[in-house]
Amino acid sequence: MRNVLVLLAAALLACLSLPVVATESHVALVRGVTGQVTVVRGADTQEVEVGTQLQVADRVVTAPDATASIVFLDGTMLTLGGSADAHVRDYVFEPKAERYAFSLYMSQGSAIYESGKIGRVAPEAVEVETPQATVGVRGTRFLIEAGGP
């Protein structure tokens, strides 16, 4: 229950942060961070801070007591709880060409997902995987629990 409350508080803080602005090569911005959060990009690992831009293929890893609030270009919100490991496998948001894709793999930890435009206009293009299951988006908000005991 505590983890869910921490995730909800982090999501609320993300909504109150700065507006989302990113370059075309970036698919998301980190809007809120508590504790130690890192992004793994290829062979490089760097500390995450508010404003860090994420790309396709990035892995975001949170320490046990850390959280990260991420907003994608279409408005999709992902709030990671402690000990999370989330890999952005694919992301396409091209409304003029009607091309959409959102693929996320959560190997461990917990997160709250809230649909943006992709989830509303092309829910079949959204896929969230965990070691135990693949979630197809048919709603707009859900809690993910992956790995662990």
Structure explained in plain terms:
Residues 1-22 form the signal peptide. The protein has 149 residues and is mainly beta. It has one domain. It has helices spanning 2-15, 117-121; strands at 28-34, 37-41, 44-47, 53-54, 59-62, 67-72, 77-80, 85-94, 99-114, 126-129, 134-136, 141-146. Strands 1, 2, 3, 4, 5, 6, 7, 8, 9, 10, 11 and 12 form a twelve-stranded mixed sheet that branches. The longest helix is centred in the first third of the chain and has 14 residues, at 2-15. Mean pLDDT is 85; it is low at 4-9 and 11-23.
Itemize the secondary structure elements and their pairings:
Layout: H1 2-15, E1 28-34, E2 37-41, E3 44-47, E4 53-54, E5 59-62, E6 67-72, E7 77-80, E8 85-94, E9 99-114, H2 117-121, E10 126-129, E11 134-136, E12 141-146
Parallel strand pairs: 9-10
Antiparallel strand pairs: 1-4, 1-6, 2-3, 2-5, 5-8, 6-7, 7-9, 8-9, 9-12, 10-11
Signal peptide: 1-22
Domain FecR protein: 58-146
Keywords: Signal
Radius of gyration: 14 Å
> SSE order in H/E notation?
HEEEEEEEEEHEEE
Low-confidence stretches: 4-9, 11-23
Instruction: Kindly estimate the percentage of residues that lie in beta strands according to DSSP.
Output: over 45%
Number of helices: 2
Structural class estimated from helices and strands = mainly beta
Mean pLDDT: 85
Helix percentage: 10-25%
In whole angstroms, the N-to-C terminal distance is 16 Å
